[in-house]
Design a protein that fits this description.
The complex is a heterodimer of chains A (about 210) and B (about 450).
Chain A (H helix, E strand, L loop, with lengths): L6 E4 L1 E4 L6 H4 L19 H4 E2 L3 E2 L15 E4 L11 H9 L3 E4 L4 H9 L3 E4 L2 H9 L4 E4 L4 E4 L2 E4 L4 H9 L3 H6 L2 H14 L14
Parallel strand pairs in A: 2-5, 5-6, 6-7
Antiparallel strand pairs in A: 1-8, 3-4, 8-9, 9-10
Chain B lengths: L3 H7 L2 E4 L5 E4 L2 E5 L3 H10 L10 E4 L19 H15 L2 E3 L9 H7 L8 E4 L13 E4 L2 H10 L1 E4 L4 E7 L8 H12 L8 E5 L1 H4 L3 H9 L8 E3 L4 H7 L8 H11 L12 E6 L6 E3 L7 E3 L13 H11 L14 E4 L7 H11 L9 E4 L4 H9 L2 H8 L2 E2 L20 E4 L14 E4 L2 H10 L6
Parallel strand pairs in B: 3-4, 3-6, 4-5, 6-7, 9-10, 9-12, 10-11, 15-16, 15-18, 16-17, 18-19
Antiparallel strand pairs in B: 1-2, 2-8, 13-14
Helix pairs in contact in B: 2-3, 2-5, 6-8, 12-14, 12-15
Classes of the chains: A alpha/beta (about 210), B alpha/beta (about 450).
Chain lengths: ~210, ~450
């Protein structure tokens, strides 16, 4: 169960580089426990701090107007690199609810949906317009719109991802509704491709 | 009519969801200690169990260090807990773990094919972006996050949207000294780090089918640096010969049954793809990255390009400033501080053999730190049986235990700020190999030649 996403209104912090990778979002050295929490301090650590934990005043989230931004504006291929879901957990824990970018790494986008963080795709030109706007912008997920300064931008998102975000749904719970169907499929498949099923295939077990 | 992807996908469709996603059967899950403990602990905390532990494997590679005499201790902050918790969680769930000291320990994407855990026609997922490496044997293998890993463990399935398809065809014959690493960098440099945009990518063409299996793994490994959903190659006689007899591969009559199934795993002549890219393989030169994205790569003999209008001028300049380079500068001859051979991209026996051939009888330049990390304990033993370790040691390289090592921060080790490192790894990201470290990615032979010269050099 993640935090449901319906509508969010916030100032949007511009981080308009392409290929913001998950090492930038949270460096490996900041992932200090096997849990999913305690990560916000490590968010963008390499950019956000100088000399240990002294804030770098040039970094966008350290500027007073953007410090509490719940929306990030980014460039192409946001979240590329390592599959570390800590990138989503760190963003969410910091308070980011949505990232707007021309494209996302597929693994990051999948992680985001499961973590209640909206990966919102808009064309680069629309993002540039949003970045030029100084006030708060509003995202309405059920309506699939972003509004700013009277302008409305429509965005597309898969129906499954949309429903999961709006409902804060747990994918395992959803899939277990189909448990009978899965079991039946596996039983059938096992007779066709028995080598796939190592537990029943003693020949392969050392 | 169907493509290889269609056949791989259709073999695993259980149901379509109301939201347009597919519940797809997952045949194998592989975990490592960086993301494995998180997934297993979270699963257990939710009161859920692993549906079929016999089809789940784990290896220690991401946190464990690669120094001789290693243990659970690591200088990575909090690292020991990742190791001990993964071990405990695997034991509790009945998952086969290739632990520290196990003769089969190694990097997940080296170990899995080595043991025949990944096979043609299987779906395999791991909470690791380079899982696409394993598509080299004709499997559909892709990286996921920890939460999706929990889903795969608990249900034996994932809910995903069917990706779009792409075929990348490399025609022609590679020039001598040009490797699959160069093919991948040439592709990404030409089409951008987002060029694959969530596509399931089949690598095909005469230059691909001519590759040995380990070389195919290098090519598929880099699919994630192209933003692909996955990369894979149709299995052929080379694949089947390579897999036959491996520990978890089917044996006897079961092997014959599997072979009959796998014979169909290729794109039909009239298969349709959402996108197709064709590349003249004979025109590819040894490549080297100059910036902080794999897309910022060039022929090693070239000059750092001027801003070309894609992306932003600021990002281009930022990458150059980070790397300490200027537009128009030749990279050949730039002094290096360190050379690293290893990672799931380029750490298999053939990679080490080719690098060893470059360094044999020569020595690493004074002041250059040179490190070789075999991809698995089995690779290390095989290399030692051939005397390859002696060649590296005599040349002045460190010869390590297997693991991910300094591809990033495994074992808590990294290179220093401003250090210029030439590396056979997959990511030249800002601070990937250490805060402020300047990484150039290249083939193992280019790394070896540069280590000897003390400056960027072609093999």
């Amino acid at each position: 169960m993640s935090r449901p996403f319906i509508q969010v209104t916030s100032i949007a912090a511009p981080l308009l580089e392409d290929n913001i990778d998950t090492d930038i979002i949270i460096p490996s050295r900041e992932m200090k426990s096997t849990g999913k929490t305690g990560l916000a301090g490590g968010l963008f650590a390499g950019r956000r701090y100088v000399e240990g934990r002294t804030e770098n005043p040039d970094f966008v989230l350290n500027q007073p107007v953007y410090r509490d931004a719940a929306i990030l504006l980014a460039g192409d291929n946001f979240g590329c690199g390592s599959s570390r879901e800590h990138a989503v957990w760190a963003l969410a824990e910091y308070g980011v609810r949505a990232v707007i970018a021309p494209s996302f790494s597929p693994i990051f986008a999948g992680n985001a949906v499961r973590g209640g963080l909206l990966p919102l795709v808009l064309p680069r030109a629309s993002i540039a317009e949003l970045a030029a706007f100084e006030g708060a912008i509003s995202i309405d997920l059920p309506a699939q719109t972003v509004t700013a300064d009277g302008a409305t931008y429509r965005f597309e998102i898969g129906a499954e991802a949309r429903a999961m975000l709006i409902g804060g749904l747990d994918a395992i719970d959803l899939t277990q509704l189909s448990a009978g169907r899965i079991a039946a499929w596996q039983a059938g498949n096992q007779s066709v491709r028995p080598w796939v099923y190592l537990s029943s295939f003693t020949d392969s077990n050392p | 009519m169907p493509s290889l992807f269609d056949k791989l996908w259709d073999r695993h469709v259980i149901a379509e969801t109301e939201g347009g996603a597919t519940i797809i059967a997952i045949d194998r899950v592989f975990l490592h200690e960086r993301t494995g403990a998180a997934a297993l602990n979270s699963l257990a905390a939710a009161g859920r169990t692993v549906a079929d532990p016999a089809r789940v494997f784990a290896a220690m590679d991401h946190i464990v260090d690669t120094l001789p005499g290693r243990s659970d201790a690591t200088t990575m902050p909090g690292g020991t807990a990742f190791i001990t918790e993964t071990r405990a969680a695997c034991a509790a769930a009945g998952i086969t773990l290739f632990d520290i000291g196990d003769p089969d320990q190694g990097i997940v994407h080296v170990v899995s094919p080595e043991l025949g855990i990944v096979l043609p026609g299987l779906t395999l997922v791991a909470p690791d972006s380079h899982t696409c490496t394993q598509g080299a044997v004709g499997a559909l293998a892709w990286g996921i996050g920890s939460t999706e890993a929990e889903h795969a463990l608990a249900t034996g399935t994932l809910r995903i949207e069917r990706p779009r398809t792409m075929r990348v065809i490399f025609d022609g014959v590679l020039a001598p000294g040009v490797t699959p690493k160069d093919m991948a960098l040439a592709l990404i440099a030409a089409h951008g780090a987002a060029g694959g945009q969530g596509h399931a990518i089949e690598f095909a063409g005469s230059a691909v089918t001519a590759l040995a299996i380990e070389a195919r793994m290098t090519l598929c490994n880099m699919a994630t640096e192209f933003a692909a959903f996955s990369g894979f190659i149709a299995p052929d006689a080379v694949t089947f010969d390579w897999l036959k007899g491996r520990r978890y591969a089917p044996k006897g009559a079961m092997w014959d049954l599997a072979l009959a199934d796998w014979a169909d795993l290729h794109s039909d002549p009239d298969a349709v793809f959402d996108r197709e890219i064709r590349i003249d393989a004979s025109a590819i030169a040894p490549m080297l990255s100059w910036g902080t994205s794999p897309a910022q790569s060039m022929a090693i003999t070239g000059r750092v390009p001027a801003f070309a209008g894609s992306g932003s001028r600021a990002a281009h300049d930022k990458a150059l400033a980070y790397m300490g380079l200027v537009e128009g500068q030749a990279l050949m001859g730039v002094p290096i501080d360190a050379a690293f051979i290893g990672s799931c991209t380029n750490s298999r026996l053939s990679d080490l053999e080719r690098a060893a051939a470059v360094i044999a009888g020569r020595t690493v330049a004074p002041g250059v730190r040179a490190i070789v990390v075999p991809g698995s304990s089995a690779v290390k033993r095989a290399a030692e049986a051939k005397g390859i370790d002696k060649l590296f040691l005599a040349a002045g390289f460190e010869w390590r235990e297997s693991g991910c090592s300094m591809c990033f921060f495994a074992g808590g080790e990294s290179f220093g700020a401003g250090q210029r490192v030439i590396s056979s790894t997959n990511r030249n990201f800002e601070s990937r190999q250490g805060a402020g470290t300047r990484t150039h990615i290249a083939s193992p032979e280019t790394v070896a030649a540069s280590a000897i010269a003390g400056r960027i050099s072609a093999a």
